[in-house]
Amino acid sequence: MNKFAIFVFSIVLSCSSFVSADDDRKLGPAIEKAYASADRVFVGTVMRLPDDSSQVIFHVTESLKGGKVAKVPLSCQSIDGGCESGLFDSGSQYLVYATKSDEANIYNIHPDRALTKLRLFADLDLQLLRDMYHPFRENDDSAWWFDE
């Protein structure tokens, strides 16, 4: 009986790895599409959730698109339940894809909300983002064509 349990457990583990491998193959194109349509992509920590749940302020620790900034205000008006819906927790770190809002200096969460996630679960996403070819990365002088 013990050998049978080990056998079944090993099959379950191998099947779950096939599922995640398939999901990984779908993740690359989704990340490329979201990166292309986003105005900002960054890793940031939620600084505060305001009382009216209209927006959240992120302290940016790594900017992947949109230039280096210290803070990014993100509107939660397009999120059901606002900022307090459970999507963001104060003090937690996230990988965020954001698009410009109609309001000056405020961003909206990218329409593909599944890609905005806790940093804890974004290792593969970040690896794919860092490995993507960006011929004219902002703040990276080595990528410019006129460099010697």
Structural class based on helices, strands and sheet pairing: alpha+beta
- Contiguous low-pLDDT stretches (5 residues minimum) are 11-22, 141-148
The total beta strand count reads 6
Overall residue-averaged pLDDT value: 75
- Our count of helices gives 2
Helix % is 25-40%
Radius of gyration: 19 Å
Provide the descriptors you would attach to this structure in a database record.
single chain; 148 residues; alpha+beta; 2 helices; 6 strands; 26% strand; disordered C terminus
Question: If you had to describe this structure to a student in words, what would you say it looks like?
Answer:
The protein is an alpha+beta fold and 148 residues long. 30% of the residues lie in helices and 26% in strands. Strand 4 and strand 5 (107-109) form a beta hairpin. The longest helix is centred in the N-terminal third of the chain and has 36 residues, at 2-37. The chain is globular. The model is unreliable at 11-22 and 141-148 (pLDDT under 50).
Q: Secondary-structure blueprint of this entry?
A:
Layout: H1 2-37, E1 40-48, E2 55-65, E3 71-75, E4 93-100, E5 107-109, E6 117-118, H2 123-131
Parallel strand pairs: 3-5
Antiparallel strand pairs: 1-2, 1-4, 2-3, 4-5, 4-6
Write a concise synopsis of the structure shown:
This protein is an alpha+beta fold.
